[in-house]
Amino acid sequence: MSTSQLPEVKSTEPNEQGYRSYSLGEFTFRRDEHFAHIDWPTGRHVMAVEPFLKALMRDIAWNFFYGTVNFDSVIGTVNHYGDVDLFAGRFNEDYRKAEIDHLENFPHDEIKATFEAMLGDWVNESFDPFAAPQETGSAYGDKSGNNMAAVTRTRVTAKRMIGMPDDELLRSDESGYTVNRMFADVDQSEPEVKVEPGYEKEVSAFSLFKYLSRSDVTWNPSVVSVCKDSLYCPTTEEFILPIIHGNDRVEWFIQLSDEIIWEVADRETGRPRANVVMKAGDCAAMPADIRHQGFSPKRSMLLVWENNSAALPGMIARGETPNVPVEF
Ligand SMILES: [Fe+2]
Question: What is the distance in A from the centroid of ligand 1 to the CA of 293?
Fold first, then answer.
């Protein structure tokens, strides 16, 4: 007889504020009213609990994403697509010099189970870590209920393309997704499609602006089309990207509306490399050796184009393909 075993989550009884503490290898995570406290054998770190939970939410929802997810300049994860590094100070020049940085590798399912348990326990009823600041209550205070509906949300993924048979439609009031307050001016009409008989299941079109105007989350790309390794991941952004993403491949951005300011730094050290202001219609290729964080003053629409090929990180690490899409 075979039994499937769920990964063990190591946690304590609730503390005075009602929150459990969690451990992964030699890392421990503890929260109180205001802060997340992270300890490891050679150091300790503290983050305000709201940005910590917003980063933790993205790391889980994106399944550790591509490359590095920095929660801030100290804590984060590196995805090796099967197993995941949890680190403190690994991508911080000064922590490295002082030799207080720490890194441990965990099976994907083990770190995911612990992170999910921590998120479920530490997010109160009033707080939605996916929402824009004006669309959620507070993350702070003693434990008060939970918001499992918000924290177990998964990204919307198309099998072929939105609008094709079997693919999820988030394009009408009936779907439960209404137009966001900041996209009230977005045209809600759909393109007219006349299909040659026999091709009804092959031809489709939809208004991406209408689709995105109904997104109720920020900084959470939905995969709307898949063509081999080419993923179109448009998203709506407001306020600050809750993580600092360290690329392991080139990543393309097309700013579809409004404006995002990007701080771009060296992936390894965090040293600043560029500030990029992207206005509607601008296109940029973020190199494979950078980290970046976006600031969106008004809710905006961004198309993120990802090359999902599993071969890319190795090819880039071995120098077989450049860190930029074009060398002039
Ligand atoms: Fe990125």
Answer: 8
